[in-house]
């Protein structure tokens, strides 16, 4: 982050190792979008049916947006690298311009915290694409201290669906996650 603010968290892939290997071998990294021209070129290659669906996205450690088809694994979109944000995103074309319709942090491979929003917002602003003020759908991820399973917290019920253990209030999916400074 410019200006010496607090460091941002980088998210490592925490999903199944075999999935990461298979995904990287099968699809390759997502398309890097650094400008409106990049986005418009990419969008022109998508079918109307594809544009109606959410896409897989990641924000790389360089702060840039990468896009891949919806059924792509986030780890493949990121080329196996750590990310500042990951989830699903939809686009709308209105008044002759592209904008973000919906955006989430839904990535079970990276399990990014809801606090990853500023990195996602900066990536979209850097293109620039109009966007919502926050995630339109927030997913709360936690790792169970008792059984080590990854959980999605629903309706603020911080209880592990696998063993019934109590889940922590703070994000803890990857205790080895490192801070990343821009």
Notes on the protein architecture:
The chain is α+β, with helices and mostly antiparallel strands. The chain has helices at residues 17-26, 36-44, 48-51, 74-77, 117-125; strands at residues 8-9, 31-33, 55-60, 65-68, 83-94, 97-103, 140-143, 150-153, 179-180. The strands form three sheets. Strands 2-4-3-5-6 form a five-stranded antiparallel beta sheet. Strand 3 (55-60) and strand 4 (65-68) form a beta hairpin. It is globular and about 50 Å long.
Describe the SSE topology.
Elements (H helix, E strand, L loop, with lengths): L7 E2 L7 H10 L4 E3 L2 H9 L3 H4 L3 E6 L4 E4 L5 H4 L5 E12 L2 E7 L13 H9 L14 E4 L6 E4 L25 E2 L2
Antiparallel strand pairs: 1-9, 2-4, 3-4, 3-5, 5-6, 7-8
How would you briefly describe this protein structure?
This protein is of the alpha+beta class and about 180 residues long. Helix content is about 20%, strand content about 25%.
